[in-house]
Amino acid sequence: MSETPSTSFSMIYPTSSEGQLPSSRHLSVTHPVVAKRISFYKSGDSQFGGVRVVVNPRSFKTFDALLDNLSRKVPLPFGVRNISTPRGRHSITSLEDLEDGESYLCSHGRKVQPVDLDKARRRRRPWHSSLAITAHAHHSPVPAAAPGMLRAPRRLVVFRNGDPKTRRVVVLTKRVTQSFEAFLRHLTEVMQRPVTRLYATDGRKVPSLQAMILSSGAVVAAGREPFKPGNYDIQKYLLPARLPGISHRVHPKGNARSESRKSVNWKVSIITSDLPNAGTSSQIYIILYGQHRSSAPIYLYGTDGARFQDGCEDIFTITVGDIGTLFKIRIGHTNSGLSPSWHCKEIQLWNMNSRKQFYIPVQRWLARDQEDGEICREFPVLNKGQPIFPVTIYEVHVATGELWNAGTVANVYMSIYGEKGDTGSRQLFRSKTSFSFLRGQTDTFSLEAVHLGDLYKIVIGHDGLGPGNGWFLEDVVVKDPTTNREYTFFCHRWLDQGEDDGKIVRELYARDYNIISARQKLEFNRKETWAAESWKFMKGNTLQFYNRLTGGFVRLHPNGTVDAVGKKTDKYGLFDVIFNKENICIFQSHKIRHLSLALDNGSVAGMASGGASTKLRVLYQPNRCALLESALVPGHMVIFDHHGKIADESSAGYANLSKEFVVFVKGMFLNSAVILLATSLCQALCIQPDGSCTGVGNQSEKSYWKVHKISSGICMFESVKNAQMYLRIKDGQCDGTGTGDIDCHFKIKKNLENASISLESVKNPGLFVGLQSDGQAKPVIYTKNGSVFFYPQVIKFGREDPTGISATPSKEEEKIRGSKKRQETPPESEARGPLLSSTAKEISETLLSEDEWKVLVLTGNTGTQANVTLWVYGDEGVTGPISLSKDSSEQLFLPRQEDEFQIEIRNIGIIYKIRIGHDGTSEQPEWNLQRIDTFQVEAVSLGKLQKVLLRCEASDKSQYWYCEKVVVRESGTTSESTFTCERWLPFMSQGIIHSEIELFLQEMQINHQPKIQEGANEGDWKVTVITGDLEDAGTTATVSLSVYGETRCSGPIILGSGKHQLFNSNSADIFKINLKDIGEIYKIRIGHDNRGKDPRWYLEEIRLENIDTRELFCLTVDSWIAENENGGDTWKEMPVVRTNKAPLPVVAYEIYVYTGRKPGAETESNVFINLIGTRGDSGNRRLHQSKNNKVKFQRGQVDIFSIEAVSLGKLKKVLISHNGIGPGNGWFLESIVVKSEEEDGNQEVLFPCNRWLDEYQDDGKTERELLAERSFSAAGDTGSVAS
Known about the structure:
It contains eleven helices and 81 strands. With about 1300 residues, it is mainly beta. Strands 29, 30, 31, 32, 33, 36, 37 and 40 form an eight-stranded antiparallel sheet that branches. Strands 49-48-45-44-41-52 form a six-stranded antiparallel sheet, with no helix packed on it. A five-stranded mixed sheet has the order 2-1-5-3-4, covered by helices on one side. InterPro entries: Doublecortin_dom, Doublecortin_dom_sf, IL1/FGF, Inner_ear_hair_cell_LOXHD, PLAT/LH2_dom, PLAT/LH2_dom_sf.
């Protein structure tokens, strides 16, 4: 079959370029005038190809005239109201401001969004686009007989709006189609009336030159009035001049020469049913299909009144080319007019040359509101009363892609091609789902046609109308019920003028076999997923493998065995990538360095790193899960059963086996990391120029985010491309206009099932960053539908640095940081200047005394000639960098020398830390800083100092610093505060470099003796505290430790606060404490003060090692220490296990607290208790959660609490108290009963009180010591005691 118009799309292509193709001719101007050739582009739209305008005094007399002209060319909601320079910095207000050859931006408001002009200039003009779209007809690798797409019509019938009798035929030449506006001006001359709008004959607006060129051959010209329906017949006005005046002979639109080789006259009789409203006002067309070819659409009309009315027969004579033996017809209408619905009864055709007659019973509606909604139907020719081909209802499954904003609201059309013709262009509008073409949705349509035989291609596209008209088409599956075959047409591309190649119609070819097609699609998806996930397997990354079937992590034990039931915090579940070549890796145990995961003879085990069996091939699935296959023996996989044990596919049913793993990368959200928050395999969250956020951004630099770690599990995200713009949730909006305040703080929720994260607002708990179907970000409630899932990709790993200043900043980060500090501090180059002018000195000496500070720096055994800089931090601000320099810089910081400096510190509030460092520029940059003493000359006293924070940033080891101690002396007194450090800064902990350390006052650390020599002091112990790797496992509270020995208890030793670098998730913090003369250790107690923004803490393990004897105790905790976990106790006790004796048991003590019945006996204060027995005490514990009452300590009420402690032996007394906080804080306590079950028998002890704990009652005490009632029996009735 040859090419026919029946298969082409009459579509509207909404393009912004308006066809501004400059003419290649040069005008000969007799009287030269000042002319400027200028390009205008649309604000924020690089897809708009621009408008070329010649500006001279004759074309535009005023600037407003230019604005009005551009409003018709540049598609803006309110027209062009502002013209500015390309970067939007300067507005143009007069014609004289425009420069010849330059480019400008058009907008409808003062706000202008920049445009990539290079990209906009590369946009094709509509004329070229139309040629590109029709090129398939000439270069398609299909049989020559296959129908193709229609060429752009070269002649156009133009009707006057509302008056079909007034029409003109216009020849489309390059001269009249240089631009859409030029064509409208041409039509104004031809129609002799103003033409400002064009419509298709069915009333759809034609918004651009491209849509007009690709139209069906007719348009309706209008002024500013709306479209007026009418009988706009087009065929009789496209007849060639040599065939005049044939009333019932109609030729198809387009080129008639192909029809004139051997013309055949046909007589067509069409009977409209006599049903109510069976007639139509629409335009009817017919297409004849023969063995040689098909005709074009032939529009049927007459000159003797209305046609196709109820119960009437209409007869036409038509002329077509030689199509061969007729085998089917297609009849349809344009759905235009006031009453377009039509019910056809029958059709008869006579071949006037061969005298053959064909009868086709129809009896069908062609109406949008009747039957299946089709306005086009096919019927086969009958042979001896039977159709020669069956009528088939094809089932069409259209899959819209998973990308954000993939759906469309435009009208979608499709044509199916087979060896026996095509279906013609059919609109897919009646899906079995409520809404069609939504993201990730597969819509099913029914398409009725005469059987096409074997299918080989489809043409599918949309008309580009409506907001969000772009469409990402995944694939189309056509099911043929006659042959029971399926044909898959794979696309996986955008049909969008702003994406991909800009096309909104695609020609897709069927795969030979559906199984092969599915495999090809799967392989394509695997490659796309691998491209998105391959960064995880870079050499040096530390990974975890989560198995969704077992709910556990893969772990490699020291004995070489492997299972998949590990917890997230399991130290044996971490693997380092030590080899990577394409997708072949070696995964070495992070804990057991000599073992790696291996597949040997189908068995999974730990083997020596580097062997052939340890090389595993990573195969990614479309669901973002990875398979681990032996590189040595392809086909052998790492497989586990549902118990987490090693298995193979033959060992159990396939449903009970799993070989898919979700892969996690450790350390993604360290401070100053640069990450990508992917929303799909090829999209990412990014900030738009207007500050809004969208999930449809490209995975490029504009979508990069810099991580600012606030505390464990809480981060801020700053745009790398747009410095100082942070992701935030505020006032019901989610955007990128945050400034770094609490609105920008997000809690990171990790999703084990797919390795994604969700971002929960810290300020608005329960609200997450989510995406709408069009990809726009908005606050949403957490759901599992994927709208809150982001897949992080690390572009640059950060370092553990909670203060937000990277220890090794990149150049880009330095620029960002510099822009933030520019208004707060002078440039660092100025601060580090080696000399201070005399003027600066004089100013410094005349400052107010309360702003003057004296700094004494004591250098140790190694001096430095580098430039030293100081920062001072207060709770209201920061001062720095301050250059510590003098005129004779070579005499500063010499060994064992104390240097004094006068500095100015203003308006920073209470000082809580300092930072000192140098730039490493001298030949001898190493510096042993022995002491820093800071004194306030005249100021209100800071009170008793409690702690200091030291910080040292170093880009290489030559800048590391060993701090022995910090001594702070107050001016005019002999008091001195000592803070012992005795370590190098920065220091390494659990593979992470820390630049900051918090030091507590020496006297707060029990028996802590300063280090005198390199060896350990007597009684020195090393304490290693390991925080778990659960989400938000770290704490911001201050952690204390108590160690109990046979001789005495150490008392609470403050280890430090999590506000800074201590006790972070998945970290080990090391401390040195002195336990001299404590005796044999039998238990420890560790806990925190429950302060800070996130005090919850998951403690994994504590290790105590005697530095002198190397005696080691490993105490496993694996528990939350938090008020909202495990009964609300913020303290944990563990017995010490020794080889020569059994450890003491951990006992659950049940505490019954009886509040008296006196008026006002209840309290709202926090109540604390300390149980004291023959084996020590429980420590002060808060009675937080009552087991039997929601409201505690009410008048006449009994509250039951439970605390766990290492066995205290026989209880002797309790200390009970409250903190006096809250209204009505006084409390009348009647008694306390403590019950416990131990191996040597049950214990039940009564502690009577019957007194007030009230500042204004009794003796005014809020703490009482209660002794055990000796006469109380374990079998006694506690109820009677308290009555």
